[in-house]
Specification:
By secondary structure, this protein is an alpha/beta fold. The chain is about 45% helix and about 15% strand. It folds into two domains: about 170 residues, Rossmann fold, CATH 3.40.50; about 120 residues, Roll (CBS-domain). Strand 6, helix 11 and strand 7 form a beta-alpha-beta unit.
């Protein structure tokens, strides 16, 4: 019995989304055009369960390249209307299209010349009529057995909000790195971090030249603390590397090691990574190659930086 109820609810809500899917028309395209051209922010408003859905739509838009906030309509008409400024676009959600507070707010918005997009279940409602663009969220029935509690209607509204957000994301050319910038503290942001966001540059990079004697090489490695150093030519191009492990192996085989230079002792063709690569790619290389550092070079082979396994650990990438 319980499973039957659950399955019925999910089916009704899935059917509600399909109803919205089938009702999409040119008004949706017009809404996306208006939101895309918005010079300010998107202000989303609604009351009760719809208000909760509005908050989520605003959060989704904000995290995907469209600045958006939620505004409670009652608070708006009692002083908070100042948050809306020229260049903004308002999205108002009311299934009946007759919510008193939203209608009062809509009248003020029209006087201010603020574009209004409405989401309603009745295209003939007062809110639909006063809006610049109306998007239908009309469904056959709620998932509530009494057909009263907002369930399927709020699910359909949320899905339509997601559709608007994703259409805008694509229209704006929003990319992975943009998403990462807006999620610096979350797991998604960490997964999308790039090498350039974590790498060490400038004086922090362990570096010696081809003709640097091995005593100075050891000093540079100890000073910078990465357990490795890059070996570059006079044009700063990366030619090789020398690691702590390399030093130990060389000392066992060559008693005259300290009289040689870096060019004679370095390991050529070191593994490198591009600064535009994801940090997760570096982690994969560290694990596969059993190494702890990677150097970064530019398109001209010049040394740019270094990233260490600890840098990934520091941001809790693993």
């Amino acid at each position: 019995m319980t499973l039957d109820v659950a399955k019925n609810v999910l089916k009704i809500e899935a059917d509600a989304i399909m109803e919205i899917y089938k009702s999409l028309d040119e008004n949706f395209v017009k809404a996306v055009d208006l939101l895309y051209s918005c010079k300010g922010k998107v202000v989303i408003t609604g009351i009760g369960k719809s208000g909760i859905i509005c908050r989520k739509i605003a959060a989704t838009m904000s995290s995907t390249g469209t600045p958006a906030i939620f505004m409670h309509p009652t608070e708006a008409i009692h002083g908070d209307l100042g948050v809306i400024t020229e260049g903004d676009v308002v999205i108002a959600v009311s299934y009946s299209g007759e919510t008193e507070e939203i209608l009062e707010l809509a009248e003020v918005l029209k006087r201010l010349g603020i574009p209004l997009i409405s989401m309603t279940g009745n295209s003939e409602s007062s809110l639909s009529s006063i809006s610049d663009i109306n998007l239908s969220i009309k469904i056959s029935r709620e998932a509530c057995p009494m057909n009263l509690a907002p369930t399927a209607s709020t699910t359909a509204t949320l899905a339509l909000g997601d559709a608007l957000s994703m259409a805008l994301l694509i229209r704006k050319g929003f990319k992975e790195e943009d998403f990462a910038l807006r999620h610096p503290g979350g797991s998604l942001g960490k997964k999308l971090m790039k090498i350039k966001d974590l790498m060490h540059t400038g004086e922090k990079v362990p570096k010696v030249y081809l003709n640097t004697n091995m005593k100075e090489v050891i000093y540079e490695m100890s000073k910078k603390g990465f357990g490795i150093t890059a070996v570059v030519d006079n044009e700063e191009k990366l030619k090789g590397v020398i690691s702590d492990g390399d030093l130990r192996r060389l000392l066992q085989k060559d008693e005259l090691l300290l009289k040689k230079n870096a060019g004679e002792c370095m390991k050529e063709n070191p593994i490198t990574i591009d600064e535009e690569s994801l940090a997760s790619e570096a982690l994969k290389i560290f694990e596969e190659k059993k190494i702890t550092s990677l150097f970064i070079k530019d398109s001209k082979e010049k040394l740019k930086g270094i990233i260490h396994l600890h840098d990934l650990w520091r941001v809790k990438l693993f």
